[in-house]
Specification:
Bound molecules: N-hydroxyamidocarboxymethyldethia coenzyme *A
Strand order of the largest sheet: 1-2-3
Strand content: under 5%
Distance between the termini: 59 Å
CATH superfamily of the domain at 266-373: Cytochrome P450-Terp, domain 2
CATH class of the domain at 266-373: Mainly Alpha
Number of helices: 19
Structural class: mainly alpha
């Protein structure tokens, strides 16, 4: 058994008992109330979900297992996976063991390449990526063992096996989607000696002479890994998982939500907006030009992509991390300079629009500019990178949910007529 699985086998049973006792003792306590506006407003702010891998306080941003993201910028994605699952960072020996476990499962079945090869040439990269995950569902250990009558206490182990198998394969699948979709040449075989992110960079085949792109991808995969349980992709995946659908179903379903322009697709839209600005003004625009352009965007009824958030009320620490990376490695890049200048102008514009609750940049406002600098200029691919990373959190949440024995998700809906009766009878 791997060190990570061994550790989880020690952690989970007492934690499950602790949570059961907690709910038994305080089960009747009211933790949230729901207004009519919240029922019609995407359940914003309703506290009714549990996610122990991470949380997002509006004034701090992402905290993974009690550690603020700003203290994790230097960590590698494999370390973050360990942290998400166990609540601790791995020792060097534990990290090595997890990396070997992933390497042992990285071989992608041939039929996945065949399916990707037969998809229409203009398929969206997210459709290709999610199709590849879904088509591998026949590999699910959970589905097989469930059919054989596995005990409920073992559900998490089988889900863990699916997690390792999926996470191990995502860099190769993501890299092939890039090469196939954008005609970059044949598939590149994995580098057995590289870490998870470095291997991805190797397999996409972009030049990386100083390993800066590798550094960027380690950062990118760390920053996007998780964002508590209520965002569209995490919530959708958790709901699917709660039906005891296996992780292949749950992850691909959740990532279909990430493909929406108000969620993960915003990073493709954001860079398109920035490049539109640079093209329109023939270079890095002045503050005045940017302010005018921002108002034009708003007045034409469009959003300024990369700005605003459903939960955050500060500059997203993930944006800070990308800004720091760009300032360190390519401060003079015109696209990057424009991103930095937008940050100086747009919050003040958005603050003047009363309905906008968060005028600050989110993760998507800067990530695309960093990728673009290293030659990854195909915007529509960016959400695949987000997905490779977010799979770490979604899959970890699923394993924890199985280990805690959480039931099927089933909130209650009412018709407008029923809500009318409730509110008008008061
Ligand atoms: N530009 C223009 N209008 C904006 C805006 C922006 N950047 N941010 C919010 N608004 C508008 C909303 O569209 C909404 O308008 P309507 O009432 O007319 O529909 C109003 O302000 C109130 O919105 P809110 O309460 O402040 O924000 P929401 O929780 O409803 O939405 C969003 C949060 C992230 C979807 C929103 O800020 C947005 O559309 N931003 C631009 C797209 C974007 O960057 N998305 C990525 C978010 C991060 C993420 O999930 N990545 O995966």
């Amino acid at each position: 058994m791997s060190l990570l699985k061994e550790k989880l086998a020690q952690i989970f049973p007492p934690l499950r008992q602790e949570i059961q006792a907690f709910v038994k003792q305080y089960g009747d306590k009211v933790v949230s109330q729901v207004t009519l506006a919240q029922a019609y407003g995407g359940m914003r702010g309703v506290k009714c979900l549990v996610c122990d891998t991470s949380e997002v306080p509006p004034d701090k941003g992402l905290i993974i297992r009690g550690i603020e993201l700003k203290y994790l910028f230097e960590k590698w994605p494999e370390e973050i996976l360990w942290l998400l699952l166990t609540g601790e960072l791995p020792t060097p020996e534990e990290l090595k063991d997890l990396q070997s476990e992933l390497r042992a499962h990285e071989e992608v079945p041939d039929y996945v390449w065949n399916v990707l090869d037969t998809m229409p040439a203009d398929s969206h990269p997210m459709t290709m990526f999610n199709t590849a995950i879904l088509v591998m569902q026949r590999e699910s250990v959970f589905a097989k063992r469930y059919a054989q009558g596995m005990k409920k206490e073992e559900y998490w182990e089988a889900t863990y096996d699916d997690l390792i198998s999926i996470i191990a394969k995502l860099p190769a699948i993501g890299a092939y989607v890039y090469r196939k979709r954008f005609n970059k040449g044949p598939r590149i075989e994995s580098d057995k000696n590289a870490d998870w992110a470095k291997n991805f960079v190797h397999m996409i085949g972009l030049p990386d002479p100083n390993e800066e792109l590798t550094k960027l991808m380690r950062l990118y995969f760390t920053l996007h890994c998780d964002h508590e349980g209520g965002n569209v992709s995490a919530f959708s995946a958790a709901t699917i998982n709660s039906a005891l659908s296996d992780l292949y179903y749950a992850l691909s379903g959740g990532l279909n939500g990430l493909a929406g322009p108000l969620h993960g697709l915003a990073n493709q839209e954001c860079l398109a907006w920035i490049i539109g600005v640079v093209e329109k003004f023939g270079g890095v625009p002045t503050h005045e030009e940017l302010e005018k352009y921002a108002w034009e965007t708003l007045n034409s009824g469009r959003v300024i992509p990369g700005y605003g958030h459903a939960v955050l009320r500060i500059t997203d620490p993930r944006f800070d991390a990308f800004l720091a990376f760009g300032n360190k490695y390519f401060p003079e890049d015109p696209i990057f300079k424009t991103v930095a200048r937008v940050y100086e102008v747009v919050p003040n514009v958005l603050k003047q629009v009363q309905k906008i609750k968060d005028p600050w940049p989110n993760v998507d406002a800067a990530s695309g500019a960093t990728l673009y600098h290293y030659g990854m200029t195909e915007f529509s691919y960016y959400t695949v990178l987000f997905s490779i990373s977010r799979a770490l959190g979604i899959c970890s949440q699923a394993v924890v949910a199985r280990a805690m024995g959480y039931p099927i998700t089933r909130p209650k809906s009412l018709t407008t007529a029923s809500y009318r009766k409730i509110v008008e009878s008061d």
